[in-house]
Structures are given as C-alpha cells and as structure tokens.
C-alpha cells in the first residue's frame, strides 16, 4: 500500500507569514493581570515581605528598642544558639513525633469511619454534617473542653479511670500523660476531618471495578488492600498533607491546654518561637526558630508528596 | 443576509503552526455552505476567523461586501452555534434566546415578540420557562439555534452542532437545521467532519485538508468529479477503491496488478491528458457501485477478485475482495485504525443482493469503465483535460 | 453495589449500624459534655464525682459570660472581622481565580505554585515582622489590622478553590458572550459568576471558619479587651488560679452555634471544596 502525502494546491505565499497572538488574547491577558493584581499585592505585602524580613532578623543581631527592632549586622549566632539549645531539640523531636503519631492515628481512624459511612445508605448526610462540627470548632474551645475533662480534681476522665480501678492520676501534671492527653484532644477534633476527605474519595470510586473484583473472586480484605487503597492514594495524600501542615504549626492546643507544660513537655516549635519572641523578647533566636519551623514545614510537604508519589498541578495517573 | 467572501485567508499561530493556507472561498447570499475535512484540516479555524474569534494573519474577509478583518464579532453581525451549545445554565430558555437582544437594549415588547417567533419556528414554545438542565440534548441544540436566529444576523456559523447527539437524533436534526435555514434564507457556513452530513446538507461543499482547500462543488459534482485523490477517497462511503496502475501503450489499456483492462475510445476522448501517461504509473479509482457482479452475457471490461467477506445488507451485497494490485490510501481520508485494518490490495464492491457468492470464491466484476477515475501519482490530481 | 440482603433481627442490629452508633458516640460524647456542662450551675461544675447531667439546669453561665466577662464584645469583634475579611477575600479572590483559571496570562502556573507555597507557611514564621508592621501602622488592637492579615492569609486557598470551579465552566462561555455582544466585565458578571457561585460559597465557608477560629494572630495583634476576638477572649477568661469553666463553655456554645449551623447548611460546599482540590492537584 502506498500513501499519498498532502500536496498544496496552490503555491505558498511569497513572503513568510509570522504568527502573532490575537489582539483579543492580548487584551484578555492584560485584563487578567488587572484582575490578579489586588490579590497579589495584598498577599505579597502581608506574607512575602514579612517572611523575608523574618529571615533577615534571624540572620542579624537584633536588639529591641522602644521603636522596634534594630538590626546590627549579619550573624549566624541565632541559628547556632537555637541549634545547640536543648529545649529546641526537645521541641523539634516533640513536634515531629507528635505529627507522625497524630497523623497516623487520624488516618487509620478516619479511614475506618469513612468505610463505615460509605456503606451507610440512610443518614449519611446527617453523619457528614455531624463530623463537620468538630472541624469547625475553635481549637481554643476544644482545648478548654479537654482541659475540663482532664482536670485533676473534678475532671470526668479521672472519674472514669477511678471507676475502672486505675486511680485518679493528674493527667496534665505529668509529661507522658499530658502529651497523650494533648494528642487525644487533637485526634478527636481532627479525625472527622480526615474521615470526610476519605469518604468523599471513596464515594467517587467507580462501582464496576468492585463487581469485576467480586467476579474475579477477591474477598473483602484483599479487595480493600489491592483495589481501594491504591485508588485512594491521591485522596489520602491530600488528607495527610493538610494534617502535616497543621500539625507542624501546633500552637493553639498546647497554649491553652497545658501552656507548653508541664515544664516544657508539650512545648512545640511554634510555642517555643512565640515564647522566645514575645515573652523573652529575643527576636533574633525567635526568628531563627520561626524560620527553621517554616523550612521544616516545606520539607514535610515535600516528603508527604513523595511518599504518596503525587504530582501537584498535573493530571492523575 | 449577506454573502461571505474569503480572499487568500491565512492563519498562522504564535508557535508557527500554519493552520489555514491561502483559502479563498465565496459563499453566496442565502447559501448553505459546508466545510468538511478530517480533524486538524483547518475548517474550524476558518470558521472562527469568519466569526472574529481568531485574528486573520493575512488575506481579506468580506461580509456583505464590507471588509471586516478588524471588526469584533459583535460588529460583524454573525451568529454562531457551538458544538457544546454553550447555553447559559442559570437562565431560562427565554432568557438564553433573548440575551443578545437584551445586550443591544432591544425594548421589551419587541424582544419578547422576537423570542416567541424564534421559539415557534423551533418548536420550543412550551419550554420557554425551563432551564437548560431540564432539557434533552435535541432541545438544547434547538435553543442554541434559537439564540442564533433571533438576532436575524447576516451569517450563520455552525461548528459541528450535531456531533453531541446520538445517531438517530442527528439524522432528525439534520433535516430540521436544513429546513430552518431554507426558511430563513441566511448565508450559512457549517463545519463538520462527517462527510455524510456534508453531502446531505450542503448546497455546496468545501473539502479541506491540512489547511488547504481541496475542492468546492455541489455534493453530486464532488462525488462524480473529485479533483484529487484525497477528495475521491474522502467523499463517499464505502470509500472509493484506489489502486496503483500502469497505463498501457497509447492509453488503450490499464494494468492493475496482473490484470489488464481495455480502455474504450470514450475514456480517451473525455480525458485527453491521459494519452501523455502512456507507459507511466497512475492511480486508478473505482467506486464500489461501479463494480457490479458480471452479468452472464457481458462483454465489457472485467476485473477478477478473490472474495474475503460478504456483508448482506438486504438491498445489496457488500463484497470485500482482494486483487494483486497495490491499494492506495490518501493520508487523512480514512482514519488510522481503518487504514491499519485494510489489507494490501483490498477493495469493496456493491453488487446485486441475490448474487450467489461466498468467501473464497473468485468473482468477476463488470467494470463501469466510464466511471473509472485517473489520478497523477506525483500530484494526486485528477487526470482530465 | 455492595448490598447484601439481611433478614430478621439482622436488619436492625448489624455490624454497620453498631459501627455507625460508635462513630456518633465518638463524635457526640465530648460535644454533649461541652453543652451539658454549660448548663450546670457554677458550683456543680466542680463537683466530684462529676454531674453527668446538669441538675439543676441553669443559665447562670450564659448570663455571666455576657454580663461579667464582656463576651458580647468579643462576639461582635469576631463577627465584624470575620465577615469583612471573608467579603474581601471573596471579591478579590474571585477576580484572581477567574483570571488564573480562564484568562490567557503568561506565568499563570508559576503564580499558582507561589500562592500555594505561601499558604503552607505556618503563622509563627510571620508573626513577629507582622507585629512590627502593624505597630508602625498603628493598627495593633484594631479591626483593620486583623482584617488585613486574615484577608492576606486566606486568599491563596480561596483563589485555589475558586480557580478550580472556574476551570469547570465550559470554555465556550466567553466566546458566546463575545458573539452576543457582551464586553469582558459584563461577561464575568452576568455569565461566569452565576455559574461559579457554588465555588464562591465553598471559599466563603472556608474563609469564615478560618477567621472565626484563628488564634495566634488574634492573640498577638489584638490583645486589648475591646478588640479581642472570641478565641482569645475565651482563652483569657479567668486567671491562672481560677478557670471559670462554666462561663467558658457557655461562651463556647454560643461561639460554636452560628458556625455549626453555617457549616451544616452549606456542608455540600465544604465537602466539595475539600475534595475537588484533591484530585485535580
């Protein structure tokens, strides 16, 4: 078989033709920049410059005067101070472990809840609405609530523990129990959020592949691991990403529930930074803590994305 | 109502892609002109240039005699129906149809009268207060048309408006669109990739390929007198059989594979240029209906093929056969999957319904020699005068 | 899809129903504790063993919150700041989301990625310089200071949501408008915006929730009593020695109710907002 290629019917124009963008396209592009400008100005002004300035502070000898901060020269001493500081080491370890544990527990519990909800035919809307309430609660309120529950004298947690014969420990008074108490408060508030994200992902899975799996003879457990989990990967990745971001900036909960204590047991990186800047007025080191925390957050993002092999901005596989 | 005149239109995109090359076409006042061709042939780009949605790189576009190259779509007084209808989902049918008039600040009573009139023509009167989401595909398509006709524009432009409808509805709507256009007598340029649609709807049809206009003619002329191999292969279903062949001495015969077919005087008279191809290779074309099964008493030119497949349609038999000649495929005329499935030397013939034939038989076809087409191998052009 | 027939008592009591009940208990119990405790008398709040059901039911705490603890002021402040910031975010964000979703700009992708990266930064990283900036402007302990900050920090996510919704609108819409004769602004207002309304609602709910619950910035910038928002107000109820839980819970219930209702009514938008971003990346 031979194929005939296109032939031009007429001879091409003498002068080479150059393609230009449409007049309307240029107009629209200009309009686009006009529309975007306010947002860019506000965001840049209020976020980028302060971020940069924060980095600058962290790299200078910062002294506080009546009018503000005086920056006296470039130095890495803030960072070396922070990196050698044992409280910072603790805060770093605490924040990382806290993040890992809470995110993991929430992921497992949230997925379980989502699986239960997915099978529900009646009342699913009600359940979803119920789940949204903890998410919409102010974290401070959540902290106060659990503070009341954990209260050493009249807290209901102690009453229950006593009733089952475990005595009445002062939960918030000891490091380990305080940390666990903190985690429980966080998990209670955030698991529903994860559950909703996973549920929404589950609902979007096509039904016919499950029928095909049934015909192929796959059982419930194996279906879950071999089909559901891989398909849920982007959804799970998103949930983990959100949570890791939140967890790294952990501030509200420990501030209100334990005030970073007992001692520095629940002092997260953010609490440490806050205390350094606003209680001790050590702006330099405080800024160093803040900057390193930000870097860690970025790192956490990248790692989460890597772990789930998801690409941002591109189509799914 | 206004004629459209394209004079050497070119469209080159920013990245250098030359989508439309030196296209010249005149659409008469009230004419239904169809632009047809495979994907990427430039038909939609040409349409959008007429609409004003794409800038014209070079050449002149005239609507109603006036040069409109630099005018906005609104100024050109054109109306367009998109493939996806692009109805405003939050407006009722009435509001959708009347939107353009509202923008032009048409007084309310006049606006409503025009909308009612358009709805009447399209059979949408009962649906005026519904929203697009509540309508069927065919109804939505009619609303899209309603939006176009209510403005009483100079030109209608339609970009594959029936592609999203299922087959049966498409056939129905074809007739509808045609009827409405006749009734309104507005110059219309209609783009489609479906050659059946083109043939059934157009007053004239323009075949395009890779940005170049191949041929403009009435459907029947296109079918009977294709200017080149591409048009010959593109128009008509099942497609024309095209083979490499060699012209014999004095152009008195032509050889396909191992078979020689004599050419009577009438063939040479109609195609004087054929004589200069004596001893050379050409491409020969025969439409399936021009290969009926040989009648027992026929004496004319014959072609023998080995039957692969027989499809009984009731009204006729479609026979797939092979001969030992080289089959020619015009790039883009048939889609790639079809092309891959075609075997070397395969041809298609349409014969009488009760002919006794089965796969494996050797069948003799009577060649309708006057309908045989000849094409130059290098240029692809039809060999005529 | 996975429906199996169950007969007899299985219909009422089965694994699924039990699990659902467990979930409701899991979520609902602490909520119950919050609401119930708010209705206990201040004395009974500290009773040991704890009162599992308030007896007598008292609204003393609610009274205290508004009369003794200025909760009314905090509520008003939160409302003003949240509503204004949300409004600004929606106006500015919709325009930007439209442009980034549908207009032919160069460098769109870079902009989106930059916005995303910014939205990832923890508040602690910017709180110090922002404090100085607001102090220089004289905007500490004001409405506009916090509004500005909230607007800036909620814009990236809102733009992300709005852009995704804009992308879902058929691309012929602008061209149809053009042919019908509508100018670009008219097209956005009459054609695109009504179609993007769900996205606007979604972004609005998220922004409202974020502003209503924000703590670190509110704590740092609006420390004075007159300008405190609810989170800070509640956190500062009482002293180191006395924590007036009753008042705290009463205030909490009042704070949770409006946003709870909003989120309940608009839950469809919240859920779609959480997931539409996911798959499209």
Descriptive terms for the model:
heterotrimer; A: 317 residues; mainly alpha; MetI-like fold; 2 domains; two-stranded antiparallel ribbon; 3 strands; disordered N terminus; B: 385 residues; alpha+beta; OB fold (Dihydrolipoamide Acetyltransferase, E2P); six-stranded mixed beta sheet; five-stranded antiparallel beta sheet
Helical content class of chain A = 55-70%
Strand content of chain C: under 5%
Task: List the uncertain runs of chain C.
Answer: none
Oligomer: heterotrimer
So what's the CATH class of the largest domain in chain A? Mainly Alpha
Mean pLDDT of chain A: 81
Q: Which fold does the CATH topology of the largest domain in chain C refer to?
A: MetI-like fold
3D structure, described in words:
The complex is a heterotrimer of chains A (317), B (385) and C (281). By secondary structure, chain A is mostly helical. Chain A has twelve helices and three strands; from the N terminus they run βαββααααααααααα. Chain A folds into two domains: 28-74, no CATH class; 91-266, Orthogonal Bundle (MetI-like fold). The longest helix of chain A has 36 residues, at 23-58. Chain A is flat. The two termini of chain A are 38 Å apart. Mean pLDDT of chain A is 81; it is low at 1-13 and 311-317. Chain B is elongated. In chain B, helix 2 packs across helix 3, helix 2 packs parallel to helix 4 and helix 3 crosses helix 4. Helices cover 25% and strands 30% of the residues of chain B. With 385 residues, chain B is of the alpha+beta class. By secondary structure, chain C is mostly helical. Chain C folds into two domains: 8-62, no CATH class; 69-280, MetI-like (MetI-like fold, Orthogonal Bundle), CATH 1.10.3720. Chain C is 73% helix and 0% strand. Chain C has 13 helices and no strands. Chain C has helices spanning 15-38, 42-45, 60-67, 71-102, 108-120, 124-137, 143-167, 172-180, 184-213, 216-221, 230-235, 245-265, 267-280. In chain C, helix 4 (71-102) packs antiparallel against helix 9. The mean pLDDT of chain C is 85. Chains A and C meet through helix 1, helix 3, helix 4, helix 5 and helix 7 of A and helix 1, helix 4, helix 5, helix 6 and helix 7 of C.
């Amino acid at each position: 078989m031979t194929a005939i290629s296109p032939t031009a019917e007429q001879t091409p124009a003498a002068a080479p033709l150059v393609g230009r963008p449409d007049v309307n396209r240029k107009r629209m592009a200009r309009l686009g920049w006009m529309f975007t400008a306010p947002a860019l100005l506000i965001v840049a002004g209020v976020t980028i410059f302060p971020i940069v300035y924060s980095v600058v502070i962290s790299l200078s000898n910062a002294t506080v005067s009546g009018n503000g901060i005086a920056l006296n020269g470039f130095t890495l001493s803030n960072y070396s101070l922070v990196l050698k500081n044992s409280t910072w080491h603790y805060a770093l370890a605490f924040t990382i472990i806290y993040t890992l544990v809470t995110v993991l527990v929430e992921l497992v519990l949230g997925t379980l809840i989502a699986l239960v909800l997915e099978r529900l035919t009646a009342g699913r809307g009600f359940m979803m609405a119920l789940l949204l309430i903890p998410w919409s609660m102010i974290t401070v309120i959540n902290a106060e609530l659990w503070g009341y529950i954990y209260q050493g004298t009249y807290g209901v947690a102690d009453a229950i523990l006593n009733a089952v014969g475990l005595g009445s420990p002062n939960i918030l008074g000891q490091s380990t129990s305080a940390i666990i108490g903190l985690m429980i408060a966080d998990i209670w508030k955030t698991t529903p959020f994860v559950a909703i994200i996973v549920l929404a992902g589950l609902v979007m899975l096509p039904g016919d592949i499950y029928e095909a799996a049934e015909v192929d003879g796959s059982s419930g457990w194996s279906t879950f691991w071999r089909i559901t989990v891989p398909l849920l990967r982007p959804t799970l990745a998103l949930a983990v990403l959100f949570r890791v971001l939140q967890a790294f900036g952990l501030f509200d909960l420990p501030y209100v529930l334990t005030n970073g204590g007992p001692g520095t047991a629940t002092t997260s990186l953010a609490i440490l930074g806050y205390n350094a800047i606003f209680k001790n007025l050590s702006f330099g080191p405080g800024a160093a803590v803040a900057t390193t925390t930000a870097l860690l957050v970025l790192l956490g993002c990248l790692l989460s994305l890597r772990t789930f092999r998801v690409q941002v901005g591109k189509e799914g596989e | 109502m206004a004629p459209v005149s394209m004079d050497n239109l070119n469209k080159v995109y920013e990245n250098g892609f030359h989508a439309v090359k030196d296209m010249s076409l005149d659409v008469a006042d009230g004419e239904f002109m169809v632009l047809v061709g495979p994907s990427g042939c430039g038909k939609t780009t040409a349409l959008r240039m007429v609409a004003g949605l794409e800038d014209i790189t070079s050449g002149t576009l005239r609507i109603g005699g006036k040069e409109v190259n630099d005018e906005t779509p609104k100024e050109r007084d054109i109306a367009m129906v998109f493939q996806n209808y692009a109805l405003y989902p939050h407006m009722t049918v009435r509001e959708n149809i009347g939107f353009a008039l509202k923008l032009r600040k048409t007084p309310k009573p006049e606006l409503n009268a025009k909308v009612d009139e358009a709805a009447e023509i399209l059979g949408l009167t009962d649906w005026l207060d519904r929203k697009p989401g509540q309508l069927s595909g065919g109804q939505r398509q009619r609303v899209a048309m309603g939006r176009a006709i209510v403005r009483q524009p100079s030109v209608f432009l339609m970009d594959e408006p029936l592609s999203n409808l299922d087959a049966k509805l498409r056939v129905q709507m074809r007739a509808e669109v045609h009827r409405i256009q006749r009734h309104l007598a507005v110059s219309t340029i209609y783009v489609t990739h479906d050659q059946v649609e083109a043939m059934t709807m157009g007053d004239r049809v323009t075949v395009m390929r890779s940005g170049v206009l191949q041929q403009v003619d009435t459907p029947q002329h296109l079918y009977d007198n294709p200017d080149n191999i591409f048009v010959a292969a593109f128009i008509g279903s099942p497609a024309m059989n095209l083979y490499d062949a060699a012209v014999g001495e004095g152009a008195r015969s032509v050889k396909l594979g191992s078979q020689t077919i004599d050419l009577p005087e009438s063939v040479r008279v109609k195609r004087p240029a054929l004589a200069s191809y004596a001893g050379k290779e050409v491409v020969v074309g025969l439409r399936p209906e021009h290969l009926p099964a040989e009648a027992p008493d026929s004496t004319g030119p014959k072609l023998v093929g080995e039957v692969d497949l027989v499809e009984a349609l009731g009204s006729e038999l479609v026979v797939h056969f092979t001969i030992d000649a080289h089959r020619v495929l015009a790039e883009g005329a048939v889609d790639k999957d079809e092309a891959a499935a075609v075997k070397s030397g395969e041809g298609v013939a349409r014969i009488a319904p009760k002919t006794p034939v089965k796969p494996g038989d050797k069948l003799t076809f009577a060649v309708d020699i006057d309908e045989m087409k000849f094409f130059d191998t290098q240029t692809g052009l039809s060999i005529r005068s | 899809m996975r429906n199996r027939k169950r007969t007899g008592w299985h219909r009422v009591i089965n694994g699924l129903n039990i699990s659902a009940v467990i979930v409701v208990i899991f979520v609902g119990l602490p909520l119950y504790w919050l609401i119930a405790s708010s209705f206990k008398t201040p004395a009974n709040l500290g009773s040991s063993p704890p009162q599992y059901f308030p007896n007598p039911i008292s609204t003393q705490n609610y009274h205290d919150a508004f009369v003794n603890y200025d909760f009314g002021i905090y509520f008003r402040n939160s409302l003003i700041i949240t509503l204004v910031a949300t409004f600004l975010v929606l106006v500015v964000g919709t325009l930007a989301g439209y442009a980034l979703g549908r207009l032919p700009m160069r460098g769109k992708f870079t902009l989106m990625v930059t916005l995303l990266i910014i939205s990832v930064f923890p508040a602690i990283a910017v709180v110090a310089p922002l404090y100085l900036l607001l102090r220089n402007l004289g905007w500490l302990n004001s409405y506009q200071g916090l509004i500005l900050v909230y607007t800036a920090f909620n814009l990236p996510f809102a733009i992300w949501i709005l852009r995704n919704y804009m992308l879902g609108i058929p691309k012929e819409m602008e061209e149809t408008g053009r042919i019908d004769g509508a100018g670009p602004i008219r097209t956005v207002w009459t054609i695109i915006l009504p179609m993007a309304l769900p996205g606007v609602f979604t972004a609005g709910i998220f922004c409202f929730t974020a502003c209503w619950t924000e703590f670190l910035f509110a704590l740092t910038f609006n420390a004075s009593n007159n300008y405190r928002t609810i989170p800070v107000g509640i956190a500062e109820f009482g002293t180191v020695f006395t924590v007036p839980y009753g008042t705290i819970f009463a205030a909490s219930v009042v704070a949770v109710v409006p946003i709870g209702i909003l989120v309940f009514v608009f839950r469809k938008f919240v859920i779609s907002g959480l997931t539409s971003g996911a798959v499209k990346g």
